[in-house]
Amino acid sequence: MARKSSFQTSNVCVLGGGSWGTAIAVLLARNGHTVTLWEYQEDLAGKMKEERENKTFLPGVNLPDGISITSSLSDALSSGDYVIFVIPSHVFRSVAKQAASLSPDLSLGKKKIISAAKGIENDTLKRMSEIIKEEIPALPDNRFAVMSGPSFAAEVAREVPTAVVAASEDESYAREIQDLFMGPTFRVYINTDVAGVEFGGSFKNVMAIASGIVDGVGFGDNSKAALLTRGIAEMTRLGVKLGADTKTFAGLSGIGDLILTCMGKLSRNLHVGKELGKGRKLDEILGEMVNVAEGVKTAESVRQLAIREGVETPIMEKVYDMLFNDLDPKQAAIDLMTREPKTEH
Questions:
Q1: Of the listed 111, 112, 204, 318, which one is catalytic?
Q2: Strand, coil or helix: what is 81?
C-alpha cells in the first residue's frame, strides 16, 4: 500500500519485549519508523542486540536495523514520541507508574500513548486504559488509544495479512494511530469505544480456554460452534452492562479475536484449555510455558465483574471453576447443558 503524501516517520518506544511487543516493533520499523524496544531482562535484551532476533519469544524473525533494544526504561522513554505499552496485565500498573516517574514528558501528558495489552487488573478490576489514566492523570484523551483484534504475533511478523482496530475517545487520534500502523499487510480500523475494544480483547481469552477444554476432552465441532456463539453473547452482555457498545463485540476486537483465539493453533489460552481438558493441573501447564496466557488471570477478574454487576456469565464462570476449583470438564459441560431453558435473545 502506498503511503499518503502527508506520512511522516516517527520515533516510537515499545515497552515489552515479548512476542507481541517484538512483532509490533518489527511492523513499525518496516513502516519506516525509528523504534526503541524495551525488554526488562538485561540478558535477553543483550542477546536480541547481538543476534538481531528474539529467539525466546519470536524466533525466526529478523529485527530490522530501525529497531534499537535496551533494558533501560529511562533510555527507552527518552526516545519516543509515541509510547506503546505491550505489558502483561498483572505488571501493567507497576510499569506505568515507573515510566511516569522516569519521564517528565510522559507524566505531564506530553507523549502519545497506545495500549496494546489485553487483560483486566485482578485487584481493582480496572482496564489498562483506566490504569493509564490513574498513573498518568495529565494525559489528555487526544493522546491515548488502545489497539486490539485478531493478531497472532508470529503471523504479523511474517507479514500475514491482518486487520485490527484502534480505539480512542478522540477520533482524530484514532486516525493518527491508524496511519502510524497501516501497511501492505496490516490494516487498521478505528473506533471510539475504548471500553468495548478492551473488554473484547480480554474476555475472549477466557473463552479460548473454554474452547481448548472442548478440544482436550474430545468434544466435537457442534460443541465448538455452540461455545463460540454463546460465548460472544456472554461477552456482549457483560461488556454492555459495563458501558461498552453492543456493536463493538461484533467487530474485530470481539468476534474477530474470539474466532482467532478459540480456533488458532498459536493460541496460548487455547493450549491451556486443551491441557486442562486432558486432565493436567494448571500449575504444571503454566510452568512449561514461556509466554503469558492472559485468560487465566482474566478469568478471576471476569468472575468478580460479573458478580458485582449481577450479570450471568455461565461459560466464563465454569472456566473459573475448572481453573481454580478443580471442576471436572465433563461435569462442567453437563452443568451448562442442563441449565434452565431460555430464549436465545
A1: 204
A2: coil
Query: What sign has the CA pseudo-torsion 120, 125, 131, 135?
Result: negative
Residue 7: band (very low, low, confident or very high) from pLDDT cuts 50, 70, 90: low
Mark whether 318 is an active-site residue.
Answer: no
Report the DSSP pairing between strands 58-62 and 53-54: antiparallel
Could you give the residue range(s) of every CATH 3.40.50.720 domain in the chain?
11-192
| % of the chain with per-residue pLDDT over 70 | 98
List pLDDT tens digits, range 195-232. Answer: 999 999 999 999 999 999 999 999 999 999 999 999 99
- According to DSSP, the residues that pair with 162 across neighbouring strands are 186
Architecture of domain 196-337: Orthogonal Bundle (1.10)
38 membership: H or E segment, kind and range: strand 34-38
CA distances 156 to 55, 70, 230, Å, are 16, 22, 29
Distance CA 50, CA 42 (A): 12
- 9: its cell numbers: 516517520
- Confidence (pTM): 0.94
| Architecture category of domain 11-192 in CATH | 3-Layer(aba) Sandwich (3.40)
The values of phi and psi at residue 59, to 5°, are -65, 150
C-alpha cell at 279: 486432565
Cell numbers standing for residue 6: 502527508
Give span(s): CATH 1.10.1040.10, the chain.
Answer: 196-337
Nearest 5 degrees, angle CA 316-CA 95-CA 257? 35
Q: Can you spell out the DSSP letters for 141-187?
A: GGGEEEEESS--HHHHHTT--EEEEEE-SSHHHHHHHHHHH-BTTEE
Interior/surface letters 109-147, b for 16+ CB within 10 angstroms, e for the rest:
bebbbbbbbbbbbeeeebbbbbbbbebbeebeebbbbbb
Q: Per residue in 295-330, pLDDT tens?
A: 999 999 999 999 999 999 999 999 999 999 999 999
